[in-house]
Amino acid sequence: MSSNDLTDVPPALFSHIQNLASLYMSKTSLRSLDFLIEAKLTKLKFLQVKWNTFSVISESVIQSVPALLYLDLEDNSFTCDCDNAWFLQWVEENNQTQVVNAHKFECNYPYDLRGRKLLDLDVHSCSLDTGFICFISTTCMVLLFIAMSFTYHFLRWQLVYAYYLFLALLFDTKQKNKHALSQYDAFISYNIHDEPWVLRELLPKLEGEQGWRLCLHHRDFQPGKPIIDNITDAIYGSRKTICVISRRYLESEWCSREIQVASFRLFDEKKDILILVFLDEIPSSQLSPYYRMRRLLKSRSYLSWPRAAEHAELFWEKLRQALKTREEAAEDTAEDMLCLTV
Q1: CB neighbours (10 Å) of residue 116?
Q2: Mind listing the pLDDT tens digit for each residue in 239-282?
Q3: By three-state DSSP, how is residue 191 classified?
Q4: Which of 124, 128, 181, 277 has its CA 20 to 30 A from that of 195?
């Protein structure tokens, strides 16, 4: 089948000669040897395909002729890239098939490698180092796990706050709230163990006598809503946040998150929205593990319930003054000045 213009050979051509042992197809225009894959010439031992136009010898082609002993591929237009990497490795390592004059095979593509010997091509960059890839993948997974663990334990609440701040910016919530009335005058942040004091002392005074609208966990949180959503909505939906601080409060994770979100709002809006009420006398030395609380105490005043035992009315009056809006405080100041003038 040599010396003709064949470009492709139908595999069915060999259906009746499955025991073919030698095949000569030189000086044709064959563009590929892929017809051998389906020709099933399992007994082919001699193959001469010189002076053709194919450029790549695939692994499937070589495996389709398992009995091959002699292969002549001279004067073909070989491509010198990773497509021929397997073929080059096979030429150098196989002990069964004699590849005639393999050292003379020359590159025809790409242009900058034309004339270079095919066997001189460095194919190491074409093979994947699975061991190295596994090492890199495992290392990346470990580092990612460490980073995620660190983020979860130390930064998750900052990310939650950043998420809500992003939503506020996205929907222009902050601008709308500037002109809207807050739903509550104050959100009460407290530990469940301090609830008796909140219900017996704080609530009757602030809501009952002074008429403030307060937001409490057990009463005003929306059922079925995520806790962090309820906390954020309560803090941003109230003019101020009153933190009822005790030793149990400092040890509580959720109380820590509440004061953290309130602190974020304080630093973000630059408004006097945080009121600290201490139920216990806690020395500064015992506050050292609670860096956020120590930072707040350095920058703002607070109310102490134990110190107000003999002057309870003064305590509640100071708390009332702290809950006032700027407009109400200005009106009270004006009235006092008028009284002094009279």
Answers
A1: 14
A2: 999 999 998 988 888 888 888 788 777 777 777 788 989 998 88
A3: coil
A4: 181
